[in-house]
Fold each of these.
Amino acid sequence: MLNQFQIAGLVTHLFVLLLGVGGLAGIVPLARGRRAGLGLVLMAVAMTIVVLEPRFHFGIAGVGIYVGGFLTGLWLLLGPERRS
């Protein structure tokens, strides 16, 4: 059974995931467009791993996915834009 903090974390990151998918689909107007949408999706997935880790014990694979996904998502969301 998930505790109240895990449930709150999952609901919060579900909202971030929906914003990201909306940005990828062009439904939600994000400042950096689809790039920001992909970043939000990666960050939401990474944070979901952190929330569920105590229950499923992902181990080193979970740590790698979390760090890689979160940092890549953050870079897509906030990193420098390409100039055309």
Amino acid sequence: MVGIDFVDTIVVRRVADKGTKIIEEKIQESNWSGKNFKQYEKKLRELAGDRGLASCKGTKTLRIKQMRETTIPDASGLLMSTGRGTGLRIG
């Protein structure tokens, strides 16, 4: 008898191409925030190399290599509102 890992069998359906195409794929870890996103962003910045971005109506050029890395603020100890904004709790 063979065991089944149910985590690998979960399938997500997503819509693409203006709603005309449905793609079914396994659940992937989200990569739009947090430490994973920082690593992904750093990798993209290295791939970009020494390219420049135009700014200030095209009069200034910023090098992607020289852009500062943003930091993730620590939210522990801050107050968070609960309910409809009437209650507070420490995060």
